[in-house]
Amino acid sequence: MTTDDVGTEAIEQLTELGLGLYAARTFVALVALSGGTAVDVSRVVDVPRTRVYDAAEELADQDLIRVDDSTPQRFSPVDGDEAAERLLDDYRTRVETLRSALAALEDDRHRIG
Q: What is the pTM (predicted TM-score) of this model?
């Protein structure tokens, strides 16, 4: 598998796990670069420089990157294992929320019918 194939697979999996396409592309670029600026990211992947900031905000909200208060802003990805664990925790939380909601619906159905 080539580096491009690995990057494409990572982007696909990240979007399947709920990240927006630009956020997934930005994260993969930051991992490949070991961090960088919006200009660095936009040179490596198909994300307009101005949209890198939106993507970085999404990633920072999920604690997948750190944002330095420098000029220009620099973004640093968390370690791959840490990112995977954070996404897995989020996924588990969503599944548990779904399980609770479905159980409540089933309980209501049993009370009504």
A: 0.86
